Amino acid sequence: MDNSPTALFENYDEDFKQLVASLKGKLEGDVKTLKGEQKKAALKKVSEELDEAEEIIAQMEVELPSMPLSIRQTYTTRLRTSKEALDKVKKTLRDVRQESARSELLSGPGYPNRDDPYSDDPDPSAFSARTRLLQGTETLQDGSRRLENAQRIALETEDVGADILRNLRGQREQIEHTRDTLVQADSSIDRAAGTLKKMIFKMYQQKFVSAGIIAILVVLILIVLWSKLR
Asked: Where is the T-SNARE coiled-coil homology domain positioned along the sequence (predicted)?
């Protein structure tokens, strides 16, 4: 399996596209046909899948700096496009939630029946306050989900950083071990060079001794020959 940054980015991008396509299909089709608790459950499921999509985006961002500079700009543009697609899905989800909240207000207790011509008009200020309250609650929930997602990504990034530090520590120990080995090898080479110099010195010494002995023998032979010829 190819674990290069480019291959991982491509895998994340493929998963992201499938997830976004699924979210669009639910928001534009299935969710609109549901009502009540079923619709709330479907919207909650969509929110969870949105968190998953944001996590995939975060993983794509992690892989981006490790890519070669020659192709990084291309993948940066693709990442920006994916973020824009995710923002559009988020906006669609907000619109669906607001529409769902308005529908609940219109059909909830205390709101007059539009089909009843004798019903009283609603209190506009109460309607507006309740709408703002629902929107504020939704914003708070969305912020909480973002904070949880950011914390999860931070923890994962911390784990990645710890792994990198452990790898660097191991590499430093290997380098130090290699350096010690080189120092020992250098010492061995120095000792071998000293031994070799001693051997060379002894070799020349033996040559000089041998030459002296030969010279003495030649002189003795010459003396013997001279004495016989005299």
From this structure: 132-199
Name the CA radius of gyration of the chain, rounded: 43
Residue 172 neighbours by CB distance under 10 Å: 10
> Rounded CA gap, 188 and 123, in Å?
97
Measured in whole angstroms, the distance separating CA 33 from the mean position of its chain's CA atoms is 40
The closest of 89, 15, 24, 93 to 59, measured between CA atoms, is: 15
Contact 119, 113 (CB under 8 A): yes
5-112: which CATH number, 1.20.58.400, 3.60.15.10, 1.10.443.10, 3.40.50.720?
1.20.58.400
Q: Which two tokens stand for residue 19?
A: 């997830």
- Three-class DSSP category at 11: helix
pLDDT digit string, tens, across residues 195-205? 888 889 888 88
Q: What tens digit of pLDDT does each residue of 106-136 get? A: 555 544 444 444 444 444 554 556 666 666 7
